[in-house]
Structure formats: C-alpha cells, structure tokens
C-alpha cells in the first residue's frame, strides 16, 4: 500500500531556532498534502493544506510566517517551524492524498527547550 | 464548516467482546468517512473507510455503518484482541481533494 515517510521522528531544539520536517510519498505522487498538529490526548488539528507548486492554504489561527510549508514536488512537502518556542512543542503529522485515500506519516515529536 | 462528534471518549471491553464507536457529522455534503487507529507515538493508520453511496462495509473483524439521513456512522470491532487497544478516530470529508475533519477520538482498552 501507499507509504508516507516522515522525518525526523523526534527532534529537540533550542528556543529561537528553526526546525524542518520532511514528508515524502514513497511510491505514489500526491498533489495534495496536509499538515496536522496533535497535542497530548487530543485529536488531530489541521494546520495547512499544501498543493504542489502553489502556496499553502493555512487554517484560521495558524501563523503562515511561523509555519512555512513548501511543496516543491509531487512527492515531497516540508514544514519549517521558525523561531520555535516551547509552546510549539507538539506532535506534527503529515498526510498525503492520492486516489481519494489519505495516508499519514509516522509523525514528528518536536520538543522546544 | 464540518463538525464531527465522537463517542465514547474511552471504552474498555474484555477480550472477545465487541466494541462500538459512534460519530455524527454536521455537513450533509460529506461523502467520505474513514476510521483511523493510532498507537502511542505513531501516525494514524487507516483501518476501514466508507463512501456515501454505501451503507455498510466489512473487513474481517471490522465493520463500518453509515446512516446518511441521520448523519452518523459507526465502527464495529468484533472478537476484540489486546492488540486492538489504541486510540480510534473517525473523520469526514466532502470530496476527494478536501480536508479531513476528525472526531475527538476514542481510547479503546481491551482487557484480558
């Protein structure tokens, strides 16, 4: 079946630095990718929708200048958390859409210290 | 926008019993309803889905039913096993390129 590879699985960074998370569709092309954030014991909250070759669409309340999304190819989307702060610590998950099926990555645990 | 409610938030069953999780949605235009299983520290994994032109779908021990009139859909797991213990999420979407709206999740615990 479809596989979405997400890296890194865990990252610890210092407050004020930036972190990049990669999401790759390994055996299929995805014109649309989604980025979610999940706090402990909560549901997935959509942050943005990313379409290949165009600007991402951000959900209300999500700062586009803080969470930079690049979807440069049909198999790769990246999320960069800029000037990270402790409140950005969370579990970030990507999802790729192809053939009407949404496939999720394994998630990235970001800890900002 | 779409709103998906999910119940119960926690569910404990004995091994071999059945488990049922229910979701309701608000947008009558929604036509795709997947269910995901999420284990601790991992991303959600699709376990079964149903589209609006179907009322029921079954895959071994797992089944999903959809009532479009009432705008609710349910996940049924029969003969539960300890490895079924996880958090389950329902979701809804209005189209093949639309975003998914998730329910709040159900923590299922299967006890021996």
Helix content of chain B: under 10%
Largest sheet of chain A: 7 strands, mixed
User: Which chains make the largest contact?
Assistant: A-B, 23 and 21 residues
Please estimate the helix content of chain A.
Answer: under 10%
What is the CA-based Rg of chain B, rounded?
A: 13 Å
Class by SSE composition of chain B: mainly beta
Strand content of chain B is over 45%
Broad shape of chain B: globular
What portion of residues of chain A belong to β-strands?
Answer: over 45%
Number of strands of chain B: 11
Q: Helical element count of chain B?
A: 0
Q: How many beta-strand segments of chain A?
A: 11
Question: In terms of per-residue confidence, which ranges of chain A show pLDDT below 50 for 5 or more consecutive residues?
Answer: none
Class derived from helix and strand content of chain A: mainly beta
Question: What integer is the average pLDDT of chain A?
Answer: 94
**What is the first-to-last residue Cα distance of chain B?**
41 Å
Radius of gyration of chain A in whole Å, from Cα?
A: 13 Å
Q: Are there runs of chain B of 5+ residues with pLDDT below 50, and where?
A: none
Provide the residue-averaged pLDDT of chain B.
95
Report the order of strands and helices of chain A.
Answer: EEEEEEEEEEE
Oligomer: heterodimer
């Amino acid at each position: 079946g479809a596989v979405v590879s997400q890296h890194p699985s865990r990252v610890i960074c210092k407050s004020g630095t930036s972190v990049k998370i990669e999401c790759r569709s390994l055996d299929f092309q995805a014109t649309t990718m989604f980025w979610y954030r999940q706090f402990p014991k909560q549901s997935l909250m959509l942050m943005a929708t990313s379409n290949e070759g165009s600007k991402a669409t951000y959900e209300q309340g999500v700062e586009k200048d803080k969470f930079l999304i690049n979807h440069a190819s049909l198999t790769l989307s990246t999320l960069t958390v800029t000037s990270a702060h402790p409140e950005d610590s969370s579990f970030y998950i990507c999802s790729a859409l192809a053939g009407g099926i949404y496939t999720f990555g394994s998630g990235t645990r970001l800890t900002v210290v | 926008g779409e709103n998906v409610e999910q119940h119960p938030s926690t569910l404990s069953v004995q091994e071999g019993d059945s488990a049922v999780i229910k979701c309701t949605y608000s947008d009558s235009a929604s036509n795709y309803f997947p269910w995901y299983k999420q284990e601790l520290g991992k991303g959600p994994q699709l376990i079964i889905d149903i589209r609006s032109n179907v009322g029921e779908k079954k895959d071994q021990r797992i089944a999903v039913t959809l009532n479009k009139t009432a705008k609710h859909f349910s996940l049924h797991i029969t003969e539960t096993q300890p490895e079924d213990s996880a958090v389950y999420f329902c979701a809804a979407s209005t189209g093949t390129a639309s975003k998914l709206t998730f329910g709040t999740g159900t923590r299922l615990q299967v006890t021996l």
